[in-house]
Design a protein that fits this description.
Blueprint (H helix, E strand, L loop, with lengths): L11 E4 L4 E4 L4 E6 L7 E3 L10 E6 L3 E8 L6 E7 L2 E8 L8 E20 L2 H4 L4 E5 L2 E6 L2 E6 L5 E3 L2 E9 L3 E10 L10 H16 L9 H13 L1 E2 L4 E2 L22 E2 L2 H11 L3 H15 L9 E2 L10 E3 L11 E3 L10 H15 L6 H17 L18 H21 L7 H18 L1 E2 L4 E2 L14 H5 L7 H13 L1 E2 L2 E2 L18 E2 H13 L3 H13 L10 E3 L4 E3 L5 H14 L6
Length: about 600
């Protein structure tokens, strides 16, 4: 098989709610991290070549047609492959489990008889380490360093050029299973998994979970698929939700804006809580809130913008040179240096998350409140400092208008929590009200460009920034305010491409310190639809929202960005931020009584 260039949107997403895999349209697993989302990949051809690890089934003869789907409201992928001799269905899934993750692949005969081949290339440590392979414990074991994998199948396999291969035939009615299980190399592998039982249990898990959704809009299928994707990006043991399943998928093909998104951003807190609670998933909202509180526990001055799935703080960023990058987009980065940035907006997002959770019936207890008071005490002395902002720029700190606005949100929500839950804050509430009003005045004076009649990216700037679409969404100013309406209009006019929204123009004022450009940003495009709805342009809002839905791939998945010229998804995939924005927009645009 020659090197393939699979578009980002041509991948399917599998998850067991602890780790995940990406499967191409032709049935190849090109990305798989065991045992966690952020573990080193054992299949890394997504970011390199076949030699960096993959798992592929393919017929000996020419493929006439393929089609795929998820089975109902699940993450069970079914890929049908037709040839002249017959047809088979490849059933791929990862059963939610305990300590030993599995990826299970069942080849089912649909008609005729098809001669199939398998190619399995295991390379631990992001495609770098060739394992020691031997037959033991009723399967084929691959071991290197701390990692072990065991492949169990009734099909005879053999080694060829550091690759495991097999040839077998599948007739109508046959079901041929392959189970690949991770285990710690110093231990024996776990007992054999019954693949048919695991398939039944996995289907039940996802169907029951999806069945709890309160479907309230015309776009219920899109909402449910996005929620399933968000659940799939959840690290079940802690409740943390990773931003995406991948690292280093580029924001522009061939560019350097390639980041590791397999971590949990505090920024997602408000959006995720709103998304889950709006459709009835209170338990998931509680788990995420509890993860949030554990992660940020301690000194408020040490709060980070992101953490590992268990709340880890050290996410050192480094580059690996043995991977060529997705379509030669270098560098490939592991870890994320933005974890050390100072970003004011996260304080607003955390306090807003706590406020929304309280409104939904998730009570704030005394220890929770003490932690929040600590955050507010820190913010009192630091809200007026420049920061790196919501977009995590690497061009130096500035007084970003969105950051100051979100500092206002923090004080506003802290005041409201005191007023609504009776939290002890007699010495604080009046001071917080004064600071809240002070920030509001400052943003309206210094963040507003009177000549251009718009709010701008940072104080004294002429540049636009799509994060300012959040102003009416967080209640800083009403959508009816002329300054807000002008800002929305300016963003729609000057910061869009083919109707979709860019975060900002990277070439303006060199704010992000990086070369090159990027695609349109899908969450911001959903925010524009929300704002159009709020200012009464409901038909335009719906039209934009449905155009955004059309950008999803055939399985309902979205990445972070989109290239309108090449008509390709860009950035890490699937992207939690995009799917949360989709859910929240659907709830705003499809609220009862709206058309």
């Amino acid at each position: 098989m020659n090197k393939r260039h699979t578009k980002i949107e041509d991948y399917a997403f599998l998850s067991d709610t602890q780790t995940s895999a990406l499967v191409s349209r032709d049935g190849c697993v090109d990305w798989l991290c065991f045992p966690r989302f952020d573990s080193p990949a054992c299949f890394a051809s997504l970011l390199g070549e076949e030699k960096n690890g993959r798992w592929l089934f393919f017929p000996k003869e020419k493929i006439d047609k393929t089609r795929r789907r998820y089975r109902g409201d699940t993450l069970i992928l079914e890929t049908e492959i037709e040839t002249k001799s017959g047809a088979v269905r490849l059933i791929d899934f990862m059963p939610p489990r305990g300590e030993n993750p599995d990826i299970i692949r069942i080849i089912e005969g649909l008609r005729g008889e098809v001669q199939m081949q398998m190619q399995l290339i295991i390379r631990f440590d992001y495609g770098h380490v060739v394992p020691w392979v031997r037959k033991r414990h009723g399967g084929l074991e691959a071991i290197a360093g701390p990692d072990g994998l065991i492949l169990r199948t009734p099909i005879e396999t053999r080694g060829k050029d550091l690759t495991t291969v097999a040839e077998f035939s599948v007739a109508k009615g046959d079901r041929v299973p392959f189970v690949l299980t991770w285990f710690a190399s110093h231990l024996d592998p776990p007992k054999k998994v019954n693949p048919e039982h695991a398939l039944r249990d996995t289907e039940k898990f996802w169907s029951e979970w999806a069945g709890r959704c309160h479907r309230k809009t015309p776009w219920e299928d899109a909402i449910v698929r996005s929620l399933i994707t968000l659940k799939g990006l959840t690290y079940a043991p802690t409740g943390g939700i990773v931003a995406a399943a991948t690292t280093s998928l580029p924001e522009k093909i061939g560019g350097v804006r390639n980041w590791d998104y397999r971590y949990c951003w505090l920024r997602d807190a408000t959006f995720l809580l709103l998304g889950f609670m709006s459709v009835g998933y209170i338990d998931e909202a509680k788990s995420w809130r509890e993860w949030l509180l554990r992660a940020i526990a301690g000194s408020a001055s040490q709060m980070q913008i992101m953490y590992g799935v268990r709340g880890e703080r050290r996410l050192e960023e480094y580059e690996i040179d043995w991977l060529s990058g997705y379509e030669n987009s270098k560098p490939v980065r592991i870890g994320n240096a933005a974890s050390k940035q100072f970003q004011l907006d996260v304080y607003g997002e955390v306090l807003n998350a706590m406020h929304e959770a309280h409104l939904a019936g998730i009570e704030t207890d005394e220890s929770d409140w003490r932690l929040q008071v600590g955050l507010m005490n820190f913010l009192e002395s630091n809200w007026n400092k420049p920061d790196e902002g919501i977009w995590e720029v690497r061009g130096g700190r500035k007084d970003f208008t969105h950051s100051k606005m979100m500092a206002w949100v923090a004080f506003d929500r802290a005041v409201k929590l005191v007023e609504k839950c009776g939290c002890e804050a007699a010495n604080n509430i009046e001071r917080w009200r004064k600071i809240r009003d002070q920030i509001h005045r400052e943003v309206c004076e210094r963040g507003y460009n009177a000549q251009k009649k718009v709010f701008t990216q940072f104080y004294g700037s002429d540049a636009l920034d799509a994060s300012l679409l959040m102003m009416p969404l967080v209640g800083f100013l009403p959508a009816s305010d002329e300054r807000v309406r002008n800002t929305i209009a300016a963003i729609e006019r000057d910061l869009t491409e083919d109707g979709f929204v860019r975060r900002y123009l990277p070439q303006e004022e060199q704010v992000d310190g990086l070369p090159g450009t990027e695609g349109v940003f899908l969450p911001c495009s959903f925010w524009l639809a929300d704002c159009l709805h709020l200012i009464g342009r409901k038909k335009d809002a719906k039209a934009l929202f449905e155009r955004l839905l059309d950008l999803r791939n055939d399985l309902g998945l979205l990445s972070e960005e989109y290239d309108p010229k090449e008509k390709r998804q860009l950035g890490n995939f699937p992207q939690a931020f995009s799917h949360v924005a989709l859910v929240n927009s659907a709830m705003i645009l499809g609220a009862k009584g709206e058309k």
